[in-house]
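Entry 12.
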Amino acid sequence: MVTPYAPTMASKEEARGRFRELRRTSHSFDRKAPSRILLTAPEIQSASVIASFQSYGDEPDTFEMHSTLKSQGKKILLPRMNSDKSLTWLLDGVEINPTLLSKIEVVIVPALAIDSRGVRLGQGGGSFDRALPALSGWKVALIDYICLCATELPEEPHDIRVDAVATELGITRFS
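Predicted 3D structure (tokens):
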């Protein structure tokens, strides 16, 4: 059994550096596995409007998942980062009417790491932390298991915790 990573970190920057390196050097990870696991969640299966993100680099792959969800008739909203690092939500490449934000049932968020409290460590730009308070849906991070942190990650008052995390080994829900 793989055990979660348990570093002691004094700052978010230190944590980001460690998890970026850990993710970069993890070669056994199937990048599509967390998304395939997430597709089995009842929250995903019952949702009709889902906010997500387009993966890049060594993040868990979201492209196949988005294709599957669209084929099931679900609306997939994707963010566009603005110059001020805020997010504008798009549906099929077109900016949505802001009233659609209230219909989002699931929010799939990127993360470098998640701890056992649901504290999310992002890339550091704060875009998702600023966007999440306006999105009332079930918030789930998509990471590989090696980025589950057994010790508490640094947390600030503006940070928004996730309700769950999906990895290649399953879905963990936080209370």
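Annotation: The longest helix spans residues 12-25. The chain has a mean pLDDT of 90.
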